[in-house]
Amino acid sequence: MTRRRPGITVVLSMVLTSLLAVAAVVGQWLAPMDPTKQDILAAAAPPGGGHPLGTDQLGRDVLSRVLAGTQSALVGPVVVAIGAGIVAVVFGLLAGFRGGLLDTVVMRVVDLLYALPSILVVVVLVGLLGSGYWGAVGVLILLSAPGGVRMVRSVVLAQRTLPYVEAGRVVGLSDRRLMFVHVLPNVLPTVVAGLLLDFVGGLVALSALSFLGMGSPPGSFDWGRMLTENRGLLEQNAWAALAPALLIVIAASSVTVLGDWVFARLTGKERGRG
């Protein structure tokens, strides 16, 4: 199979994603000012005077806040992706390899969860239960997993009839060993690509919740929260709202491009085809 080199869009996405990852680790130390320091006299100031992106409604430096907020903005989606990936691997492997009643039950639950509008369900549950940011992360894990379970199951169904699985059964290997030692490595390319797209879904959903005032608490370094707190400053200092909004778009777009490229690279198929 011919391996094409990544195009300029993929390379740019790699660079942007790497920069965001670095900012998530060291962003709070790169911030030029204390992101919590308020200066009411300098509130809603445009870029300039030591503030490259201006200040927000409380006079806090916008650049410092978006840098310090990178970690907060990305950790939740990472947890969503990893959690959904684990659920997808476990239940997809079991359903696809064991089949029978277990497969039927798992897929009926998957179909039910897959039919639910994720954002609406999270908004309703968080609103009713008051579970906050990490409660929303937990709900998103459950709602993000069904797509992964389906993909893993489909790969396992194709793998379990291959000669190496039959040979393993002949020599007495247990189903557990066959699933997790021999079949799982062939499933991982699909799982890795799915992790990246689950990250994007988590990022957009959690940012939307914070924008609606149901995710991170007021004053936190969350990009969605910054966007909703500063949306009234578009005339005085548009960057107070545009900076976090642009970072959400950049992060989601870059990781989506990488997810599609990784899927094509590891499986030899274009996403959505074949």
Automatic annotation (TrEMBL):
Signal peptide: 1-23
UniProt cross-references to InterPro entries, sorted A to Z: BP-dependent_transpt_permease, MetI-like, MetI-like_sf
Pfam families, per the entry: BPD_transp_1
Sections of the chain in a coiled coil: none
Record CDD domains: TM_PBP2
Main location as per UniProt: membrane
GO BP terms, alphabetized: transmembrane transport
GO cellular component terms given for this protein: plasma membrane
UniProt-annotated location(s): Cell membrane
Domain ABC transmembrane type-1: 74-259
Protein keywords: Cell membrane, Membrane, Signal, Transmembrane, Transmembrane helix, Transport
Transmembrane parts of this sequence: 74-97, 109-127, 133-152, 187-212, 238-263
Topology in the lipid bilayer: Multi-pass membrane protein
Domain of life: Bacteria
Similarity section: Belongs to the binding-protein-dependent transport system permease family.
PANTHER family membership: OLIGOPEPTIDE TRANSPORT SYSTEM PERMEASE PROTEIN APPC, PEPTIDE ABC TRANSPORTER PERMEASE PROTEIN
Name under which the protein is recorded: Peptide/nickel transport system permease protein
Protein species of origin: Actinocrispum wychmicini
